[in-house]
Amino acid sequence: MRQFDYREKWKKLLTPEIVSYLTQIHEFRGEQTLFIEAKADTLTQLVEIAKIQSTEASNKIEGIYTSDERLKALVKDTTRPKSRNEQEIAGYRDVLNTIHDNHDYIPPKPSIILQLHRDLYKFEGFDIGGKYKTADNIIEEEDMAGNKSVRFQPMPAWATPEAIEELCKALDEALATEQIDPLILIPMFILDFLCIHPFNDGNGRMSRLLTLLLLYRAGYIVGKYISIEKLIENTKELYYDCLQQSSVNWHENKNDYEPFVKYMLGIVTAAYREFSSRVSLLATSGMSKPDRVREIIKTTLGTITKAEILEKCPDISQVTVQRALAELVESGAILKIGGGRYTKYTWNNE
């Protein structure tokens, strides 16, 4: 039977690579805290963009889509969901907002996890939220030929309630020692949560919401400004590969947490780097908006799209960015590559 106890297992994870990630994240957190205290007003737009990206990406990983226009309206709560996909997107939006606004008052307990799952499905016409799975489930994979096979056999339904109780208890006990870095504990907890797979539906999205909740409660709030879910979606194949590696021999208490922990620490590090990049542009004083567009392209290695520029500068309108790009191309300062939706730009170093 699977046992949950992190008080010794974490020690094996202090590899040079993981320690390097931890050091970088601690330094980034200090920088972020100072910036938020000094420039909180300039970050409002980053928060709104991150909410849209997080809601879109986490649902997209599970094959849940809607149009860009409808997505933005749903996240801003200016329209009502019209389909099941949109109901699930609206549910994610509400749980994400709850975590953003109240994380200090939401302890990771079984009753809270059930409540968050209930809210994830509150727009559904049938009662599936807030209940553990009623039948055993499996995690499948499909090859290029369409053949399906069992990738992992999660905890059986009858054992799920007790497993979640023990999982949350193990996290509490490990955090109470104050000897274990939460950055290591959080991905260990999330891996175990995914291996239990406690719900009939919504396990992946719940795991990402719980990741944010636990990071925020530990003082790592970068996900409020940079979408961690989008970074995961952009590296989805590696995410699933590391999850698979760390779940081998899980039922026998012999699994290796390192691949998944290392992956998640890489994601958090990338989020902090992106935050630093964006706020340095947002905080630039005395520079015109076209000049900021110019600076972004000049300091970007390789190519960049208009959409990526807009992400980095949420206070600059699409019209202004388009005009700046046209003028930079005409002057020869940048090079335009491709056309249509695939157009990219790069600094002309010649």
From TrEMBL:
MF term (GO), any: ATP binding
Residues making up the signal peptide according to the UniProt record: none
The organism's place on the tree of life at top rank: Bacteria
Active site positions: 197
Sorted UniProt keywords: ATP-binding, Nucleotide-binding
InterPro entries, per the entry: Fido, Fido-like_dom_sf, Fido_containing, WH-like_DNA-bd_sf
All copies of domain Fido, residue ranges: 108-266
Pfam families: Fic (PF02661)
Residues engaged in binding ATP: 201-208, 239-240, 253
The protein's name in its UniProt record: Filamentation induced by cAMP protein Fic
Organism per entry: Roseburia inulinivorans
